[in-house]
RNA sequence: UCCUCAGUAGCUCAAUGGUAGAGCAUUCGGCUGUUAACCGAAGGGUUGUAGGUUCGAGUCCUACCUGAGGAGCCA
């Protein structure tokens, strides 16, 4: 095992004169008459380590195998680099090629590739500059999420991935079954329909589309909780913002109203941004230079400024008075379209915007009704360039109101018996929200396609690797 | 799922309906410690697939496949 003190990240910080052994994959190589320059990377840092190898130190056969993509072990001494581009370099005494990489057929070259091409080589793209940076940031962001909640005493709940509640209403679901799909058992007395009593769970089962309802159970026992896990949507969505499998963070807080919910959402996003800016600086500078020139300025701005907050009704007024020609007309009662969200965050406020108190008709049944009878205590956090990054609400804790809302949404009461029990026994006002992890990744990296911020993207027709 | 655009060498791209090219990569050779190194040479193509129009199609038409962007749905 290569311990932390032997990674390239560590070697680059060693004082000149230190003996060192480096392991990694060759990124690029330049040869001169008497000396070879080999850049290697092991994923631990954005900068490569430059190996300097004098001609004649290594047998010709080994040198011939030291090509782009090959895995090597190099021993020598860290020295100050006379060249520009790096402070230190490894003057090699020995070079071993541990895993060759035939250059005629290795798909990654020392040249720049576009993201679509790299996506086709999902097994090699983590070795590239861009994806090295992406996945180091992803790692840091995931850690920061746990750190944020743990520091505040939130309990980490593992919400189930398999669920038999098919009426969560959050979109199309992937069905999970052990029945023979080519020849499923059927019940003659039920019109020949598939007999799910023979299925693994004795009823239809699905992959989860949200851990929220389960998180509510835990919030009403542990007060402040959060989930962080995979989520699945079988929607046929083909956009740079959608995946069939993605990760979601869902905090849920008892004794908390929508104000507290908004406060937590804003504090949370700012914390994550600050953490990544502090711990992934070289990676973010790379994104800033290569992908999104305003990235660092935007992140600094967001971390240091108040989010805009306004009720839906006021948002609609701003949109109506904008004088714009909308593709989708704005009127009270209809949902905000992408173009409307973009106008608010990118042109009016130029920072994240929290829109609250949406019309009840366009929101889920569990959101708490306002006294006006028309709106609910919902909130969406909209981010420039991303759109909706957080969706949340104060939950309806009043049993009679919730029963009425289930009827209005034509949802069968019996499927929600335990959810209703939470209101019958020790119910309290509570609130929570969902943050799409990959949407947050897009925001902090400036990457424009969600398929490029998850290790192995699943989209309609694509589940390679 | 709908709309729009694109598909030419390993990669990034060029080519008025008239002989398919360049840079990088690769191989070989050269070169004062290079930084997307540099200089020279060579190999490398059923132009996404199947039809059609035409004397002649990478180019025009049709269908399909693949990718991207926009929309819807949402996180």
Structure in words:
Strand 16 and strand 17 (387-394) form a beta hairpin. The protein has helices at residues 8-11, 60-65, 115-120, 129-151, 212-222, 258-279, 281-290, 295-304, 312-320, 338-349, 399-408, 417-424, 437-445, and strands at residues 19-31, 35-41, 49-54, 71-80, 88-99, 155-157, 162-163, 175-176, 186-187, 193-194, 205-207, 224-232, 245-254, 308-311, 353-359, 375-383, 387-394, 430-436. It has two domains: 4-108, OB fold (Dihydrolipoamide Acetyltransferase, E2P); 129-173 and 209-452, Bira Bifunctional Protein, Domain 2 (BirA Bifunctional Protein, domain 2), CATH 3.30.930.10. Helix 4 crosses helix 6, helix 4 packs across helix 13 (437-445) and helix 6 crosses helix 8 (295-304). The model has no long low-confidence stretch (mean pLDDT 92). Helix content is 30%, strand content 25%. The strands form four sheets. It has an eight-stranded mixed sheet. Strands 1-2-3-5-4 form a five-stranded mixed barrel. A three-stranded antiparallel sheet has the order 7-11-8, with no helix packed on it. It has 13 helices and 18 strands. The chain has 465 residues and is α+β, with helices and mostly antiparallel strands. The chain binds one RNA strand of 75 nucleotides through strand 1, strand 2, helix 3, strand 13 and strand 17.
């Amino acid at each position: 095992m290569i311990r932390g003190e032997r990674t390239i990240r560590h070697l680059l910080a060693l004082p000149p004169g230190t003996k060192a052994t480096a392991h990694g994959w060759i990124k690029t190589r330049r040869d001169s008459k008497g000396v070879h320059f080999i850049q290697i990377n092991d994923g631990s840092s954005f900068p490569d380590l430059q190996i300097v190898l004098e001609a004649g130190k290594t047998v010709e056969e080994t040198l011939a195998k030291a090509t782009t993509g090959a895995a090597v072990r190099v021993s020598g001494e860290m020295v100050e680099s006379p060249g520009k581009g790096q402070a230190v370099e490894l003057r090699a005494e020995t070079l071993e090629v541990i895993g060759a990489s035939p250059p005629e057929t290795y798909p990654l070259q020392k040249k720049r590739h576009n993201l679509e091409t790299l996506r086709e080589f999902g097994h090699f793209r983590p070795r590239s500059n861009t994806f090295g940076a992406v996945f180091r940031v992803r790692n840091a962001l995931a850690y920061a999420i746990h750190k944020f909640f743990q520091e505040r005493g939130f309990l980490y709940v593992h919400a189930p991935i398999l669920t038999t509640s098919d009426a969560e209403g959050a979109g199309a679901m992937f069905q999970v079954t052990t029945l023979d799909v080519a020849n499923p058992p059927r019940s003659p007395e039920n019109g020949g329909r598939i007999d799910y009593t023979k299925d693994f769970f004795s009823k239809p089962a699905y992959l989860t589309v949200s851990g929220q309802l389960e998180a509510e159970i835990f919030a009403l026992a542990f007060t402040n909780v959060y989930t962080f896990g995979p989520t699945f949507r079988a929607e046929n969505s083909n956009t740079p913002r959608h995946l069939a499998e993605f990760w979601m963070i869902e905090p849920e807080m008892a004794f908390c109203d929508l104000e507290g919910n908004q406060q937590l959402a804003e504090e949370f996003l700012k914390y994550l941004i600050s953490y990544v800016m502090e711990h992934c600086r070289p990676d973010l500078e790379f994104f800033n230079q290569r992908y999104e020139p305003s990235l660092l300025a935007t992140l600094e701005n967001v971390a240091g400024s108040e989010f805009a907050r306004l009720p839906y009704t006021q948002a609609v007024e701003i949109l109506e008075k904008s004088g714009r020609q909308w593709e989708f007309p704005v009127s009270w009662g209809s949902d905000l379209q992408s173009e409307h969200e973009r106008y608010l965050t990118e042109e009016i406020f130029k920072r994240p915007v929290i829109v609250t108190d949406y019309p009840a008709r366009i929101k889920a049944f569990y959101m708490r009704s306002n006294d006006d009878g028309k709106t609910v205590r919902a909130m969406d956090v909209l981010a420039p360039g991303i759109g909706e990054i957080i969706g949340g609400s104060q939950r309806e804790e009043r049993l009679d109101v919730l029963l009425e809302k289930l009827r209005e949404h034509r949802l069968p009461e019996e499927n929600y018996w335990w959810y209703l029990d939470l209101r019958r026994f020790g119910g309290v006002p509570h609130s929570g929200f969902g943050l799409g992890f990959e949407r947050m990744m897009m925001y902090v990296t400036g990457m424009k396609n969600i398929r490029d911020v998850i290790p192995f993207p699943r989209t309609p027709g694509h589940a390679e690797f």
